[in-house]
Amino acid sequence: MDDSIAIAPDQLVQRHAQPGMSLLAVLHAIQDELGYVPPAAVAPLARALNLSRAEVHGVITYYHHFRTQPAAQVTVQLCRAEACRSMGTEALARHIETHTGCRFDAEHQHGATVELESVYCLGQCALSPALMLNGTLHARITPQKFDAIFAAASKCVEVTA
Q1: CA dihedral of residues 35, 39, 43, 48 (deg, nearest 10)
Q2: Span 74-160 CATH architecture
Q3: Where is the signal peptide (predicted)?
């Protein structure tokens, strides 16, 4: 059993895998509750939904949205799709990496403070470049605006950590 979750994987799956629910719906429900889908939940999910463990694992790893470990305390998801690229997101990405000391899409360790992720469309094309910081959407991001919102998010983490 994964020691980082307070509830047994079987109980977690039993609570969320209701008759008629798709695997995607159950995975979203688990991640909404825990912030990630623990690897220990794969086998109980497979049993509950009459799927193979490989099918469940394949869906979790195919969709970039699903996590198999808790997110970092501050998570930056930067849109790197065409509209944002045309408005300078790559220069912004370099600024963010320099400012945070982290690299985009690098493996992070459990308990990491900052994680940088590339995403490919946040639906803010007319307001690009866009990013999400800890689940909050921000648009028309400049390096200065990033520095301000990142500092505010980091300050909240320091206070609550």
Answers
A1: 10
A2: 3-Layer(aba) Sandwich (3.40)
A3: none
